[in-house]
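Structure tokens please, single chain.
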Amino acid sequence: MNKKKDKYLVGFVLLVMAGAFTVPYIDHEAAAKLLADPITWMVLIVVFFLLLSIAAVTEALNSIKYFVLRKEGRLDELPQEEIAAMQDDFFTRLWKRLQDARPIEREAEIELDHNYDGIRELDNNLPPWWLWGFYISIAFAVIYIFRFHILGTAPLSAEEYQQQLAEAEVQKAEYLANAANLVDENNVVMLEDPAMLNDGAKIFAKNCQVCHAADGGGGVGPNLTDIYWLHGGSIKDIFTTIKYGVPAKGMIPWKDQLNPSDMQKVASYIMSLQGTTPATPKEPQGDAYEAPADEGVEALPADSLIAEPADTTHTDSTDTK
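Here you go.
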């Protein structure tokens, strides 16, 4: 019996040491969420009762073996370890309390008058662990009905689903807001959403019209409505020009004043000016640019005008093109 207790103690110490060793490698936030999840506790309860069931079957098989050997006078064939295991230590007494089964020596007290090919029927009580599990499930059901269906202090599954959808929409909006600022000259694309183009128009009116005119026809800076461009007419070219500027020609870099999302909006708005008719268009500057079909902008046909070099006499111009 002392050896058996020593085994339990050594096993417990090893289990504690293993747990202490794994603590530094556990994600505590994930562990807290896992423990807060009711499904986790349901799984643990199921595993607990499953282990009890396995132990009960094992104990029943051992009892049958003991009964057969005793009836046949062959108990001396049992190893000493099995005989020692039947002694009433703490765990054995605990197990008997959980089982509430009559010892084999007293099975005659609960034996019924049913005999099937030598198999006797006994009137055993249900195991307390099973009964307590049954009672707990009833109490849980009553509490669940009062809380969710009568008092309404917690959301039902459908309501919880709608709440999660709302939270997901908020998270999606936050993600898109952050993702919009991940735009650069390598992955920028033309925006076609009217709301975003309207935002781009406001940014243009605030920062760009002083040099390019309110309708994009040009002034100090070049005309933005024709097909001639000094630094390329694709969305990536325009975004790059806005972002880094052309300091040599008076076009300042806007990367420190506008975020990537705003630069994409204003670049898209500038592209949307293609084909419009400004009040006083400036003469063409740069090279004719034919927009690819997949760029979303229909290029104007080139005319017979010859491109002229940019006017570099104004050091404060905003040379977007």
